[in-house]
What we know:
The structure holds 2 protein chains of 2 kinds. By secondary structure, chain A is an all-alpha fold. Chain A folds into 2 domains: about 210 residues, no CATH class; about 80 residues, no CATH class. Helix content of chain A is about 75%, strand content about 0%. The two termini of chain A are about 35 Å apart. Chain B is built from 11 helices and 2 strands, in the order ααααββααααααα. Classes of the chains: A mainly alpha, B mainly alpha.
Amino acid sequence: MRKLLLWTGVLAGLIALPHALSFSQQEILVFLVINVLLVASYRLLTLTGEWSLAHVVIMGVGAYASALLSKTLGVYVPLAILLGGVTAALVAVLLSFPLFRMKGFYFLIGSFAAGEIIRLLWKRFRDPFGGAKGIKGIEPMPDFSIGIYDFDFFEPISYYYLAGAVVAVCLWILWRIERSPVGLTFHAVHWQDKLAEASGVNLRAYRTLAFAIASGFAGLSGGLLAHYVGTINPNSFDVEVMVFVLTWAIVGGTSTFYGPILGCVVLTILNEIVLRELGFEQMRPFIYGAIMILSILFLPNGLESLIQKLTRRAPAKASKEKVAE
Amino acid sequence: MLDLLAQTGLNAVYAASYISLIAVGLVLIFGVMGVINFAHGELFMVGAYTVVALYADRHLPFLVAVAAGLVFVGLLGLVMERALFRPLRDNPLGGLVASIGFLMILQAVAVLGFGVRMVHVPPVTQEVIVFSDRIRLPVARLYVIVAAVVLLSGLWFFLKRTRFGWALRASAQDPEAAALQGISINQTARIAMFIGAALAGVAGALTAPLVSINPHMGHSVIVTAFIVIIVGGVGSLEGAVIASVVYAFVHTFVTTLYDGVIADIVGLSLMLLVLIIKPTGLFGSADRA
Lengths: 325, 289
């Protein structure tokens, strides 16, 4: 009962939130919601112990696919976004053949190379990817009305509600996956790969599955982004964005479901609202870099470890050791 | 056709010389400290801006500016070792993350100090060695080639013939055994970091008059360096030099025949291919895997 009340309160707060913000802050809010899905899907990938540097490019695959489907083939936009996610998952399955011959550091570098190759292909082939200038004039989400509220998707508030609903459903699915036997197997693949393999778990298949699911949701977030901003190009998905995703995950911490999301929300508020309001425009990368260094030095388990301390739950380390036993 | 081949070959030799300076430094740092220094491209960038500040703006002699670049970037390397990599020695992803943070700081400082726009450094010399009508080598490029050969030979001598060099290689092979022999791990880490960073800085300083300089130039540098060290085998200095030459020739020829983007794709595919077939690289040993 208390839980239900809490969630209703959170929901009401999230619905009311944009009305308290300025127009530009509302726009940032839309990006924030999309990035939450991106970073949450990244966590699913890190469950199996692999840190990919291609995740943002995979998001771009979803964005490009969705934009091209709706623009050249006239596919209905919501369906195009969904198909963008499917495309991203399929590309991930293709990439898994070369990439999952590698582990650890080699996977990190290999995924970086694979991502850069995809990005350069967009850049090189003007037909159909639009070259360095990318795709412009992407179909916006068609307006619709649900009786009490008219959605006009040029308004950030409307898009926030739509993206928020989609992301909430996706987060719920990701959460369910993590809690399912499949999700537990992901953990086993990371912490006890030899034992898992000896118990008949097909490591390669589970790593591919995690990669495909994570990529599918990243692709969805890419589709959501493309139809909001209306223009995408190869640089929208470059390694700098990937660095942001890494920062969110590391500053937040990756041993809990909410850790990366927490990192994303806190750092976005800090970066976009606080620093921008203070007028440190040119200093922002400096401060961002400093935050990264300070948090890896002094808070190696992320912001989530602070929350765990506050709520007096078992620290992340203990639960990991339990898995390891 | 033969002319074209010879000219492209000369261009490739020039590219190989500064790429190998960067890659060897990166390999040295990885070998001794086990850290992939993502900020290596930015160290190159800082070296280039040192020349902008001292040679282009303050009109000091070019060689003085290059030497200052070498020392300054080397010192930056020492700062990174002490402040970032040493405390994070036990954290496998830590060094990587910290170096990404550090590269953002270096970029921001460069933007604050010099602006985001491209800077051009006046040429050191306009002289060109003319072999024939179609084959020419600008003397400024020759300087880079000579400097790379001298520096890499110096490094080779240092590593193979001096006590510090022995200690460095020992702690790269087996840190624990080296420590038991009385070799200070912190000391070797400092030396490796200074040399590795200084090589990137000097490469940036030497090529500054030949390229357009901007705060984000490090990105393509680090991508190139990654390709080279993977193809050459992570942890192999000789492999890094050989792979630099191979990569420079492939990249230069593909650029001449098709275009730069295709050449980048070919380079990255080469790296992916090596990772798939022989992840330890063409010249790497298995124990570093």
